[in-house]
């Protein structure tokens, strides 16, 4: 089995002679465990639905979808407003892309006390974090 895997070519690394850039390639509706922070910087575990994409220049045929998962795993599931820029940067750099996009949607539970009965119950609004990162057209010095 290992020998067969060595014979398979890496299509993504071969030249694409058509000269057509890819506007958006990626994964969508991936269920992935993440850690989010609340206003008191407390961590909360949840499961997110994540969509990630990049644009690719004309000389690439595509990309391996596993590379998106590798990048998420590098960040150990911590997806916050602080980590999104680093995730987008890693997507662009690792996939040699001009632009990257990520959208994260997840249930986020808050403990609320009902007035008059003093019971605390988790209430679950949905959190959503869309983000884009574009490579500047002109180098910034």
Give an overview of the whole structure:
The chain has 141 residues and is of the alpha+beta class. The protein has a single domain, classed as Urate Oxidase, CATH 3.10.270. It has three helices and six strands; from the N terminus they run H-E-E-H-H-E-E-E-E. It has helices at residues 2-7, 66-74, 84-94; strands spanning 22-37, 43-56, 99-107, 110-113, 120-123, 126-134. The strands form two sheets. A four-stranded antiparallel β-sheet has the order 1-2-3-6. Strands 4-5 form a two-stranded antiparallel ribbon. Strand 4 and strand 5 (120-123) form a beta hairpin. Helix 2 (66-74) packs across helix 3 (84-94). The longest helix is centred in the middle third of the chain and has 11 residues, at 84-94. The radius of gyration is 19 Å and the shape is elongated. The termini are far apart. Mean pLDDT is 76; it is low at 136-141.
CATH fold description: Urate Oxidase
- CATH first level: Alpha Beta
- Average pLDDT, all residues: 76
Work out the radius of gyration.
19 Å
Give the amount of beta strand, in percent.
Answer: 35-45%
Could you give the distance between the termini?
50 Å
Enumerate the spans where pLDDT stays under 50 for 5 or more consecutive residues: 136-141
